[in-house]
Task: inverse folding
């Protein structure tokens, strides 16, 4: 189900490619069982289309794709990735997918130095591949690899030829992540105006702007967004599913039947399966998203969480934490000890706070609950012996 715009603009469809581009992260391999579990999770979460792998690889890859298609209880669109090669598409058909991505380079850099061919060759092979896929009843996304470095006039010609051949959408790939959101929005507006065709954003994070660029593309007229869980992907990764969806819903007021409460669970599972640690500072799903230590912030969050939280932690499957450390204040100490059924006076809280700060500097970290209780007992003993 698409994410819907309240303002009446076009709906946005979420295309997850964790199982294809995400697995192309250097050193990452998902076991077939893990791929199936991730596909089930993504389907339950509510994405519109899953890009699940590359059938022409054969072997375990095809077996996993076939099993995902077979288990597709949520009736989501299942897409496979292909080169602009008929044999690749035949392998996808054999897997039973309902959609294919047909990828071919469109920048002169790639055409000259990677493909070592011509623009005419690119157009010819793209058209043949699209026509073959459509003859076999498939939904077709034509991927313009390195679109962000392509000549704009050729890119428009490429898209219009794909449209004539029967393609359903164009995937704009910022393959090396060189775009910035202000220029990208203008480019997508121009391309959409000249082609009037469905555009999917596929952005990479080489300069840390993948999510911003994905959103910019939507603002420019794109109707689909390609994402991965935790931003997995080649080199610096892709736009993160959890970031894009929450930005659309909470910053741009889109509404969608997305089970955001699953975000933390799914992110943790993909982190474990990929062998890539989920940073505690990760946007949306990191443990520190709702952890408050600074005295001013903790006091504000205790009085009203909205003071320092853009949304409730339960929305993404997390919990609020008041962390006791070097930067804590009296309000945080008093509130924390209430969890132990201990009501501290202002004087006691100040005394314990001084001990807490000294301990944190010595240990170079925040304190555990048992350490706090121990400090409190030491404080009582010290004041008693005065």
Result:
């Amino acid at each position: 189900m698409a994410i819907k715009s309240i303002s009446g603009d076009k709906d946005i469809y979420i295309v997850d490619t964790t199982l294809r581009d995400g697995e192309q992260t250097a050193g990452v391999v998902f076991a077939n069982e893990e791929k199936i579990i991730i596909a089930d999770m993504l389907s339950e979460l509510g994405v519109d289309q899953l890009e699940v792998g590359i059938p022409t690889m054969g072997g375990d890859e095809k077996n996993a794709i076939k099993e995902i298609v077979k288990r597709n209880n949520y009736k989501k669109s299942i897409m496979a990735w292909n080169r602009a090669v008929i044999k690749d598409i035949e392998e996808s058909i054999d897997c039973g997918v309902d959609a294919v991505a047909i990828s071919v380079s469109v920048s002169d850099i790639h055409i000259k130095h990677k493909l070592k061919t011509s623009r005419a060759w690119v157009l010819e092979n793209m058209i043949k591949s699209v026509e073959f896929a459509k003859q076999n009843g498939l939904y077709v996304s034509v991927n313009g690899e390195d679109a962000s470095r392509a000549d704009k006039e050729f890119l428009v010609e490429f898209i219009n030829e794909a449209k004539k051949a029967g393609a359903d959408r164009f995937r704009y790939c910022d393959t090396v992540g060189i775009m910035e959101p202000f220029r990208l929005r203008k480019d997508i507006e121009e391309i959409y105006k000249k082609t009037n065709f469905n555009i999917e954003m596929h952005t990479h994070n080489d300069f840390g702007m993948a999510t911003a660029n994905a959103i910019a593309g939507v603002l420019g007229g794109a109707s689909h967004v390609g994402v991965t869980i935790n931003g997995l992907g080649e080199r610096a990764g892709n736009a993160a599913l959890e970031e894009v969806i929450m930005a659309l819903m909470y910053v741009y007021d889109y509404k969608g039947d997305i089970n955001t409460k699953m975000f933390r669970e799914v992110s943790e599972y993909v982190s474990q399966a990929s062998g890539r640690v989920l940073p505690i500072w990760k946007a949306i799903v990191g443990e520190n998203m709702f952890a408050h230590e600074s005295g001013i912030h903790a006091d504000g969050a205790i009085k009203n969480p909205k003071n320092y939280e853009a949304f409730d932690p339960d929305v993404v499957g997390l919990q609020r934490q008041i962390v006791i450390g070097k930067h804590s204040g009296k309000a945080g100490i008093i509130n924390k000890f209430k969890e132990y059924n201990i009501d501290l006076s202002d004087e006691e809280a100040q005394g314990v706070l001084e001990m807490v700060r000294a301990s944190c500097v010595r240990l170079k970290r925040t304190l555990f609950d048992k350490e706090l209780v121990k400090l409190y007992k030491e404080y009582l003993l010290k004041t008693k012996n005065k």
